[in-house]
Structures are given as C-alpha cells and as structure tokens.
Amino acid sequence: MAQFKVGIIGCGKPWRSEGATGFGMSHAHALGYIESPDAEIVALSDIVAENAKAFQELRGGDRIYTDYHEMLATEGLDIVSISTWPHLHAQMVVDCAEAGVRAVHCEKPMATTFGDCKRMVEACKENGAQLTFNHQRRFLPVFRKAKALIDEGAIGEIERVEGNCPDLFDWGTHWFDMMFMYNNETPAEWVIGQVDMRNHRVVFGVTLEGQGLSHFKFQNGVHGLLTTGGGSQHRMLNRIIGAEGTIEVGLNDEEPLRIWGKGQSHWHKVEVEGGIHGMDAVQLGVIDLV
Which tens digits make up the pLDDT trace of 149-171? Predict the structure, then answer.
C-alpha cells in the first residue's frame, strides 16, 4: 500500500486532444504519481464530471467529485495537485492547507495578485503544509548540465545571471526559478521591477505585460536581470556570466547549450539530450516532490 494518498483538482483534457483548452498538466502530474511507489491517486475533482471520468480511465483514481471541498472533507489526502486556471489557485491552496493536506503541488503562475500569493504561503505555514509549484524545467537535462558546469567551476565564480522570454506570468517564473537554481537557491537581497501594460494580452485569464524588466541582487552579491516582452527576444534564453567565462542556454534547437569557458577562445557546443521543453520533466518534478 502506498504511503501517500493523492488527490487531483482540475482534470481537464490531455494536451492537444479534441476540446482541450490548455496543456493538460494534471495528466503530466499523474504520470509522476503513478511512477512513484510511495503515492497513489485515490480521488479526482473536476467541475465537469465527464473530464474526471475520462481522466480516471487514463490515469486511475478511485473516486470522482465535482466539488473539491467534498473531496478534501472526505478523503484525508496527503498530497493534492492543483491544475486549474490561475485565478482559482489561491483559495484552493488555502482550502487544502486548512483541510490538513500535507503537501500541495500547484501549477504556475502562483496566483494573479501578490496578496493572494502571500495568503497561500501564510496558510501553508500556519497549517504545516508543504507548498510547491510546477517549475519543471530544472529537471530537464539541458538545465541540469548547465548547473553541473557551474558547479564544476567551468566559468569561475558566478557574477551575473540573465534571462529573457515573452512574459512574466506564463513563462518568466520559470527563469526566476532557474536563476535561483544556478545560484544555489540564494535568497534575493533587493529587486527593482517595472512593467509596461499598454500592449498587454491575456493568457489563461491572466493579464500579461507588453514589456517588463526585473533587476535584482542575490545576498551573495550575484546580480540578475530578466527582460520580458517582444523587445526582449534575444537569441539565448538564459545566460550565466562567471569571472572566467559564460554559459548560454536555449540558443536554438541545434545548439541548446554552449560555453565559452576557462582558457577557451570561442564558443563550444555542449552535447546534451533534448532541449528546453519536455513534459517528462513534470513527471520527474512530481517524483521529487513525493
């Protein structure tokens, strides 16, 4: 018998299937729980019962609920994955924590307001619940190899990390996560940020900036820079600048990782499996959570 009972809130339809409105992240979460010998999916909740039934046929789950409150009150769950639209995250996380769930694994973006983000963290702290978010890229080989090169001293001590992407909520949170990983999860000392909303757009119900800029400093002196929006689309996606070299991630599909390291006179391609995308990483992240 598995050690942890798992519930899923928001089943949806698999990515790229007929009628799908998102990436079907709950299905990716489920594959991780299925792979883990310590976890068992026992309950599913979706406001559309047909979605939950279809999910059950593919991924398992003993019981189905159309009201997640009833699931939380009935099942005595250890872990809950939340894969709903962002504006629903905060209350669902709070409800899970207050129901005694031991770990909540939520899709990003965390929430649509800073106030809701703080409310989620406070509720989990008060109730002793672990709160994690699906920033799966840190489990992809290309990013893990970049981190390994840093740890090996291939570019000397880190001085600066940079990233760029289309927007903050839907993509940029990944790059913040990667920057913290590159710098050994060192906390930030200060941050300066600005967004331009004149040419905004909406994705999954979240308003996204037209342009954005975040400059920050970690407590160990390393600086970070994230630019978002159309004007920020440089060739690379991540750049790690060290005292003796530079690493770039995401240059293109043919060269997802390259280094200009100690004693080198030009860029060198680093052989690595895969690129910057991959649903397998979601599964690995869930296994790590368990």
Answer: 999 999 999 999 999 999 988 88
